[in-house]
């Protein structure tokens, strides 16, 4: 089973979401919008029911403005933003 299937009816945490390539961002967005996944090389579509929690130390809004992060995925993920200061502060 993949991460989405293992997180069924639970929460999937994606750390450093900003480092995901644009092509994978499109796949992730599709999974979030349609609540279904398709494994690589398979014709079978699997429904998934998950909550997604994502984190990044980079400024995603700046990455959107420079074209390095999908704007539609940004707004899909940015429902309840939580910002925490660094431990130095």
From TrEMBL:
It holds the Pfam family Sigma54_activat. One of its GO terms (biological process) is regulation of DNA-templated transcription. One of its GO terms (molecular function) is ATP binding. It comes from the Bacteria. Keywords: ATP-binding, Nucleotide-binding. InterPro entries: P-loop_NTPase, Sigma_54_int. Residues 1-89 form the Sigma-54 factor interaction domain. Coiled coil: none annotated. This is Sigma-54-dependent Fis family transcriptional regulator. It comes from Pseudoalteromonas ruthenica.
């Amino acid at each position: 089973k993949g991460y989405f299937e293992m997180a069924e009816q639970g929460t999937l945490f994606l750390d450093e979401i900003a480092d995901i390539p644009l092509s994978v961002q499109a796949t992730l967005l599709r999974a979030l919008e349609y609540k279904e996944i398709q494994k690589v090389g398979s014709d079978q579509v699997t429904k998934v029911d998950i909550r997604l929690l994502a984190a990044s130390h980079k400024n995603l809004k700046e990455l959107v403005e420079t074209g390095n992060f999908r704007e539609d995925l940004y707004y899909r993920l940015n429902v309840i933003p939580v910002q925490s200061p660094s431990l130095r502060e």
